[in-house]
Design brief:
homodimer; 361 residues; alpha/beta; 5-stranded mixed β-sheet; 13 strands; 38% helix; globular; disordered N terminus
Chain lengths: 361, 361
């Protein structure tokens, strides 16, 4: 591929960003990442610099009106920052070039209509996110799925910035991915491309049951929840005289074990914890190999909470992908990289929905 | 997705074709499908109608000059048909609108330069197919991978014609696939997207070794060769007093068992043969489920020799894909269909390389 060829799709910014002092008049946007537990909002400029940040809990009451009011309030605060303190959103566009508001929501989204079709995390179905926010803010509003906006964020100013064809996989409680092909986000005609968390990896009849109703999905083997389930089982076996592990003490003391506890125990030399992490990484590698064979990407970026343990995850993942990928596709792969934007990726990418031209593919 | 939206890429012809008598003056092209054993050539018009056909063995001597001479000779014969019998290719464009020559070759191709980068079947490396044929024929020449041209053929006038986003999987000696996304062929930046035959399905350390050097690739479990290997093992077990199967007699009489023999035995009620076919179909279903989860296609088309046994393959494949695919992606899938063009798919698609506008994605 001739990488100098202009892309018909999302223009990934590759010029070095000017110093912030030179970019006072660049357009701004508000990006919001609505999670099941956390709401993150950023004021972002057209160079991808973060100018202001808000982060707070998503309302416990997941009624769309309640949640969208909280989203709107956070947008108003960030628009006020853009205007230098004024809290009346209607006048902000007169004062500064605010291009609009982008929002990432968990679950399938129709980005053309700005509707969240379905969200298990929020208990939503057919919620008109864009029109609600547009009416209350008076600005253009774009909405997309949370994993896709995180993918756009990593592609715009994060770990995938040097690449035109890449996959961003988020490994948290669940596993999802966003796919960018030749600079264009590939959503799929049903808006459900990139469902790597549900590709069948364990095909035995007694494979673990997934939340989707199928068995043996990658998500049941390599997600944060899978690591926690394995850790609890190992701790219970240890308590009953099985192989010793410090995870038994964690379970006894806290009543539960998080994926972070497993990573900490593995780093402290606990062999059982290390094996749990490595097994998860090997399963993830099988899924990554499948995606690399099918998409032929230049890079794979791993984000989400579990990717925070890159010291444990990265080497095993790289080895497994090398062993499991069709050799020409592996030779073409420039890297498997940890995400660069952390918890900001989704909101940065949401802002890019309004700051960066897209072709709506 | 709004399916009425014009695609920026390959324009898939959806108008009803006129009667041949009305289309005397439509452009023509020669499409050639160069296989390791068979060379197929077609004269095709811009409606996708086949006007003339040649099929013969690929030269045993796989030297590029020898093979390309045979390809050129077949093209000359078909161009002569276009000109109504004249055998001098240089004058043909004056007599009829011959748009050019398209060629499908086995192995990775750089379609921009028309170079076959590598072909294990032919023993080729960096063979300049397009420039050789262009110089000797005086017409535009386009070259692409054999599976991709078969995919274009099925999309243009075959089983995938109603769809804009689809995958065509060829199950023969090996397993490959071509991927069309929103009307555009997705080749991948390294020209090796769609390598579904090499996604890891059997992850056990002692999984069968693949020709690519990895273990447990889909191709080792669901290809014609995999079916033949299983059949031979079952026949040998039967000869040694294991479960009886008519395949033992086939092996004794012919010295080998083809995938077609296994299909015939299964249809005649042989339980062992039926199980071999069903197991292959289940493995194929795992690979299809992975691809459907990642690409979110409207349809999957299965071609290649093994797909000829659709009565055996289809029902098990459909059940497995239903059981293994993420439910929203399965609901979106309009169908899993057998290929419609048979052995002509590759040459029809090769002709479409010069007859149908593409964006070179």
């Amino acid at each position: 591929m001739d990488s100098s060829k202009p892309s018909g799709g999302l223009t990934l910014e590759r010029e070095p960003a000017p110093l912030p002092s030179e970019s006072e008049d660049v357009p701004l946007a508000v990006g919001l990442d609505l999670g099941g537990t956390t709401l993150t909002g950023l004021l972002v400029d057209a160079w991808g610099h973060i100018r202001a940040r808000r982060r707070r809990g998503t309302p416990a009451d997941k009624d769309p009106e309640t949640v969208l009011t909280a989203v709107r309030d956070m947008a108003v605060e960030l628009l006020a920052e853009a205007a230098g303190g004024l809290r009346e959103p209607a006048v902000i566009p007169l004062l500064r070039p605010v291009a609009g508001v982008g929002v990432g929501v968990p679950g399938p989204v129709d980005p053309e209509r700005g509707v969240c079709l379905f969200s298990p995390n929020l208990g939503w179905r057919d919620v008109e996110v864009a029109s609600y926010l547009h009416e209350s803010l008076g600005l253009p509003v774009k909405v997309d799925n949370d994993v896709r906006v995180a993918t756009l964020g990593e592609g715009w100013v994060g770990a995938a910035r040097p690449f035109l064809t890449f996959i961003v996989i988020t490994v948290g409680t669940g596993i999802g991915s966003g796919v960018v092909l030749d600079g264009r986000l590939w959503r799929g005609p049903g808006f459900s491309a990139g469902e790597i968390g549900h590709i069948p990896v364990d095909t035995r009849p007694d494979a673990p049951l997934c939340g989707c109703g199928r068995r043996g999905c990658l998500e049941t083997l390599a997600s944060g929840r899978a690591i926690e389930t394995e850790a609890r089982a190992a701790a219970e076996r240890a308590a009953e005289g099985g192989e010793a592990t410090s995870l038994a003490g964690v379970l006894r003391d806290k009543g539960r074990i998080s994926a972070r506890d497993v990573a900490d125990a593995a780093r402290a030399g606990d062999a059982v914890a290390r094996r749990i992490f490595e097994t998860a990484a090997e399963h993830l590698g099988v899924g990554v190999a499948a995606a690399v064979n099918l998409f032929n990407p230049e890079a794979v970026v791993i984000g989400g909470g579990v990717a925070g343990a890159w010291d444990l995850l990265g080497p095993v993942l790289e080895r497994t992908v090398r062993e499991r990928t069709f050799p020409p596709n592996h030779r073409f792969l420039r890297g498997i990289l940890p995400a660069a934007l952390g918890e900001d990726a989704g909101a940065v990418g949401a802002a890019s929905l309004v700051l960066v031209p897209q072709d709506g593919m």
